[in-house]
Each structure stands twice: as structure tokens, then as C-alpha cells.
Amino acid sequence: MKNFTWWNPTIVIFGKDTIPQIADQLAAVKAKSVLLVYGGKAIFKNGVYTQVTEALTKRNIAFPELGGVKSNPTIDKVREGVARVKASPVDAVVPVGGGSVFDTAKTIAAGAFYKGDPWDFFEGKASELQRALPIFGVLTASATASEVNNIAVVSNPEREAKTSFNSPFIFPRVSIIDPWVQTSLPEEQTVNGGIDIMTHAMERLFDGAEGVGLMDAQGYAIVKSMIELIPELRMNPENYEARAQYAWAASLAHNGSLSCGRGGRGDFSSHKLGHSLSLLFGVPHGASLSVMMPAWARYLHKENPTPFARFAEAVFGAGGGGQGSDEEERALEGIERLESFYRSVGAPTTLRELKIGEADIERVTQNAAAFAPFGALKPLTSDDILEIYKLAY
Amino acid sequence: MKNFTWWNPTIVIFGKDTIPQIADQLAAVKAKSVLLVYGGKAIFKNGVYTQVTEALTKRNIAFPELGGVKSNPTIDKVREGVARVKASPVDAVVPVGGGSVFDTAKTIAAGAFYKGDPWDFFEGKASELQRALPIFGVLTASATASEVNNIAVVSNPEREAKTSFNSPFIFPRVSIIDPWVQTSLPEEQTVNGGIDIMTHAMERLFDGAEGVGLMDAQGYAIVKSMIELIPELRMNPENYEARAQYAWAASLAHNGSLSCGRGGRGDFSSHKLGHSLSLLFGVPHGASLSVMMPAWARYLHKENPTPFARFAEAVFGAGGGGQGSDEEERALEGIERLESFYRSVGAPTTLRELKIGEADIERVTQNAAAFAPFGALKPLTSDDILEIYKLAY
Questions:
Q1: What is the distance between the alpha carbons of residues B144 and B9, in angstroms, rounded to a whole number?
Q2: Which of A218, A315, B96, B340 is buried deepest, with most CB atoms within 10 A?
Q3: Contact, B222 vs B253, CB < 8 A?
Q4: What residues form DSSP beta bridges with A151?
């Protein structure tokens, strides 16, 4: 186990009818005006906009609005928000939505006191961040764990880049999670979100770290729970208990706890390879992962069978113990059973299904390789990346 | 799943050679003088006293000392510490030791700005706490998770009470955990501490909460890990990887995370029943639990087989699925296999082994029943408590 520092100061308020508390939390820090950030129509259809704004109004908290955040959010919306808060200062940024809205709000909060352009944070300047506006959020769709971590993922179409930055200043102060809101999420979003949650755990389980059996066990527990929860929610989308466990699994899978002792923040090659698909072809994040992680795993499983073999035993009960070709077989079995699970919930596992053609592979490779080498289990070169996309085809 | 609020602001610095950072952390908050709290000889033998005091000296931080904290700490030492810091103010309280030292330090920190006697906190007045000195600690023995929670457990021999209080003001600001220090712990302490860790998880697993399969899975993972780690450390006490996982399991088992969604803070009858044994007969905390939890579980398993049956399946692989007498049998199997594990690591499972006689049972019952009714799975009356101690004999 490697040395680590654990810190996560976010207050999570979780459960039914918790949303109005956002106003109490803001009042406690004497906020008078907050930038309300959201996406599209969902929060109007599901009543959350009304819940939030009524509560803020009761507390005499003004809420200038910045709507229109897209899934796979872009830096232009962030710049718009930063300009707004620099011109008319607010006391806090209040995302009301899913991961895209939280990531946008967190980056706006960071940019508020920064002299330069907020894209700088994504190009290595996050360490210059000294201060950010506080973030108080209401989560309406669980997957990314943005509500409980210090990461923001944003795209810059001009630079053909979808990437992230992290900073202690962008941990939300308070995040409210009412799983009841998520009972109206469309099936595809539930499946894609669920894949993101599983992948967050697997990015640690497959990073090659040793001496972290306890943390591995925590990760396997999340994956096994999701393997039950996703199919259950496809059948019974309004199952509150399942929504609640899905939501908390999402937070646990990527609040940083699974990285403790592993010597890094996980592998995350699959995420990077998936980001390029999202950027260039608009592929939803979860779908990009159901295609790319199995392909990445297949590419590496002969050279590094152990993490995949352990996964196969712990999650799918594949026969355990042997070394050598036994281990390689178990590794492959684990990957195949993962793919099989993805197909069983309607998720794509090939680029073809995403309507991405062989002719596009060069271009996607170039885009992903801009960040090469990356990956903890094996640092991937652009040659590796090309082979993995080919395997994914 | 019940609504919950999750907050744990403690910064944990974990790993080899981390102890000197305590001075850096104190310097960052401009501390000039800190009350150094510790127990007996251990920190002199294992070099930790030297590491801490040299680091503080380098930073020009004065450290008036309060030594002599006992395991199963008492309120008189707390009162001594409170008097000291009221007479000569300090900027922080710095426990260097195990759970007893942390609990003592946390209570001193709470008493520093309180007009009354610190035992008041244990008699229901913790909610009056408005402020406490910050706590920066160095953990030298993992078990209680005091380094990462908001609880303090202290005894009052005059009142024949061993009990706890909790307050957001007593979360440590920073806790440093160097597992290497724990490689010199005596075997009995390793076993007793390990039982405390397992019991913290089981107090949630057996509380009767429903709709928390994800959280149960996290708890089972901790118990299963400990079932491997305790025997390993008996054989190889200097196995750093095992010590590190044991230490992090300890923190995870009682930092509050396992209580999320369960509607309460766990059952904790076994803890209360064990406290009376510690108070009246000086029984080490872990040993009191290896005797009392199986007895409590046996007493309740016919009326409430489900949590114990699930435990048997998840932890010991006992054949799963059936209801009725099948479930009751699996419940009993789980309890018997737990007891069997305890015996295999040399822990007591009867009052007799603790040299507690049948004639003492009345007295112990009276002591524990002072807090009755208690317990989440079944609120225990003094009649129940008597029967459980008899079963434990």
C-alpha cells in the first residue's frame, strides 16, 4: 500500500424531500445572491426548478440564472458564467442538475477569481488556483460523482480536447441528493450512468496496485451492487431503494476513497479513450466506456492478467487460484462476462454500434494520443491506442 | 434506505514516515503551543515521542505534556487536562497514542471552552457544545477509529459508567496514521483491536436496516478482510501491508460511513454490554466484544434471523436463499462460525474465560441496564440483558 492523504470535506444531504435545504445551507453562510446553473428542460419537468427557486425566494436569496449547459459540457458556457460572475459578483454557484452541470459550475467557481481564461486550469494551471466561489449543489442525476469530488471535466471543441482538472477549491461545500428525482430518468441515462459508476471502480481495480486487498474488496462490492441495480432499474425505474443505492454507489465510486493506498488516482485510460469518442462523435460518456474498457482490457490481459483474473473471481465467481494460463483464462473470462453484462442491459460494446467507422479510427487515435502516454497498468503509446481502437471496432 | 447526512472533515495523512508532518500541519494554523497527550511507555519505546517532539521543536511549537492516559480512560484525567488548558491556554490538543489517548484528548478539547464539568457531555449536554480546541493527532494503534470520528468514550468509575458522546466539534482536524509504528504492537492488542474493528462493522450489519445492500456489502468486505488480516498479523506481526490494511479497515469501519442510510448509528448493544465488563472487571474492549456479540446474536437470532443469515452467506459462504427454518439455521451457523473464528485467534467467547463468575452476573446486568432500553435490532430490557449475560457465561 502506498502512502496517501485522504480529505473530502463535502457535506452530503441525502434522501427524500431534502432539496429545499439548499436554501437553509446558503442562508447559514449568509449568501444573498447565487448563480443558478442548469441544463435544459429536465428540472422544469421534474419540479426541481420550482423546489429550488421557491426555497431560495423564501430565504430572500437572489438567483441569477445560467441555463443551457449541455451534456458533455463545453468551455464556452463556462466562460459565459465566469464573465457573468465577474461582472455581477455572487456569493456562491449553485448547480442544479447532473454531472455536466456540476462540472460547469465548479469551473465557473474556480474561474471567478482567476485573472486568466478558465481553460488554463485544464492545461496544467490548476495549481495556481488560490480561491474559488463556494459551490452548493442539487444533484438530479447520479453517475459522475462530481457532487462529491474535486474534479471537473469539460470539452473544448476548438482544441478538440475533452479533459479534466482537479483542485481542493472545487469540492462542493454541500451537495443535496434526492434519489426520488432520479426515478424519472430515461432508461438510456440510467444505463449509461451505471456504466460510468462501474467504470470508476474498475479504473482502480485494474490499475495494477498491490497490497490493497481491502480497497479492492470495496471496489468489487460496488461493481457487484451495480450489476444488480442496473437491470432492476430497467425493469422498475421507480424503485426508490434501487435509485438510492445507485446514487450512493455513484458517489462512493468516485469520491476518491477507492484510490486510497493505490499510489495514484487509478488507471483511467478507458476514460481518456472514451472522451475522444464523445468529443468527436457525440457519444454519451457511459456508452464510450462500455465500448472502450473491455477493448483496453482485452489488449492488456495477457501481459497483465492478475487484476482481471481477480476481478473475474470476486465479481463473477470464476474458478480461482491457479497461475499461468489458468490466470490468463480467468482474466479473459472476466472481460467477456463484463461485456456480456453490458450487452444484457442494452449498452454498446463495439465502435460499429456507435456508427463509428474503420476510417475514423486514425482520427480518434490522433485525438486520444495527444495525451499519450497515459495509463497506470501500462502507459499507453499512440501505437497501443491505435490497436485498442481497432480491437474496439 | 433512510435519509442521512454525511460529513467527515478530518484530513488523514497515511503511511510510512508521515509522523513529522504533524508539526507542519500545526504550523499551517499558526499553533504556538499544544497540549501533548499520551499514555504510558509505548511511545517512548517505539520512538514516536521523539519523532513528534523533534518535529514540534523544529517548528518552535511548545508542547506542555499530559501523560498517563490509561486504556479504558477515565474522566479524572480529562478533568486534569481541562484544568491545565484553562489555566494555560493552548492552540490545539495533540493526542499521540491509540483510541484511549484520542478519546481523552477530544474530551479535553471539548471541555476547554465549556463552563461546566466535562462529564456533562456524557450525560446529554453535548449539544450545548459551541466550540472546541482543534485536535491534531498521531495514531499509534488502530481499532477504535477515534482518529476519524466525532465520538469519545470515557469511563467514570465513581458513577460506574463507561459511555460516549459525539459532537461535530471533536472531529480531529488532522490525523496521522503510520502503520509501521503498529508492527511492534503486542499480539493481544492486535487481536483485541481487530475484534473491535469487525464489531464496528457488524453493529451496522446486524441493526435490522433494510434497503442498504450496498452498505452491507461494504461492511461484509471489511469483516472478510479482517478475518484474513488478524491471523496473518499473529503469524507475521511485522507485515507492513497487513498492518496498513488493518489500520485503514479500522478507520473505515467506524468513521460513520457504514451508518449511511441505515436510519441510526447501528445497534451497539454489544458495545454497551461489553463496556460494563470493562468498567467492572477491567476487561479489554475487544475481549468484551468477542464474548458479548455472539451471546447477543444467539439471543436474538430466532426472532430476527435475517441479518445473521445474510452475514453467514456473505462472509462465510453458508448455503443461501431459503426462508423459515433454513434461515434460522444459517443465522446460527454464521454466529457459530464467528465464535469459532474468535477462538482460533485466541480471543475469549465466554464470561468464564474472563474470570467473571455467575455470581457477578446480577451486578453486571444492573450496570448495563442503567442505559436500557438500548439496541436497534431489538431494544433490550433489563430482562433481556440478564439473559444475554447468562448466555455469555
A1: 18
A2: B96
A3: yes
A4: A166
Q: Does B124 lie at the interface with A, CB-CB under 8 angstroms?
A: no
| Residue B367 CB partners (closer than 8 Å, separation 6+) | B160, B276, B279, B280
Percent of chain A with pLDDT over 70: 99
pLDDT at residue number A264: 87
Mean pLDDT within B131-148: 98
CB-closest option in A5, A214, A228 to B248: A214
ipTM for the assembly: 0.96
Cβ-based contacts of A217 with chain B (< 8 Å): 221-222, 224-225
A243: nearest CA in chain B?
A: B1
A:248-287 residues touching chain B, CB 8 A cutoff: 248-249, 252, 260-261
One DSSP character per residue, B157-174 reads GGGTEEEEEE-GGGS-SE
Q: Is the pLDDT of residue B45 over 80?
A: yes
Q: Test A221 with B221 for CB contact under 8 angstroms.
A: yes
B7, B210, B241 ranked by CB distance to A11: nearest: B7
In this structure, the number of other CB atoms found within 10 A of the CB of residue B305 comes to 22
Instruction: Please give the CATH architecture assigned to the domain spanning A11-181.
Output: 3-Layer(aba) Sandwich (3.40)
pLDDT value for A320: 64
Parts of chain A belonging to CATH 1.20.1090.10: 186-392
- In the prediction, which pLDDT does A322 show? 67
Q: Which three cell numbers stand for residue A45?
A: 419537468
User: What is the CATH topology of the domain spanning A186-392?
Assistant: Dehydroquinate synthase-like, alpha domain (1.20.1090)
How many Cα atoms sit within 13 Å of B85 on the Cβ side?
Answer: 33
What's the pLDDT tens digit per position in A28-69? 999 999 999 999 889 999 999 999 999 999 999 999 999 999
Residue B67, classed as helix, strand or coil, is: coil
Q: Is the pLDDT of residue A321 over 70?
A: no
CB contact B223 to A (< 8 Å): no
Q: How far does the CA of residue B145 sit from the closest CA of chain A (Å)?
A: 14
Are B279 and B155 within 8 A, CB to CB? Answer: yes
Q: Provide CATH 3.40.50.1970 ranges for chain B.
A: 11-181
**Does the CB of B24 have a partner CB in chain A at under 8 Å?**
no
For residues A202 and A385, what is the distance between their CA atoms, to the nearest angstrom? 19
List residues bridging with A12 in a β-sheet: A175, B6
What torsion do the CA atoms of B236, B242, B248, B249 make, to the nearest 10 degrees? Answer: -80
Minimum distance, in Å, between the CA of residue B331 and any CA atom of chain A: 22
Instruction: Determine contact, residues B197/B246, Cβ cutoff 8 Å.
Output: yes
Which of A2, A217, A260 lies nearest to residue B224, judging by beta carbons? A217
Calculate mean pLDDT across residues B348-367: 96
What confidence category does residue A319 fall into, taking pLDDT thresholds of 50, 70 and 90?
A: confident
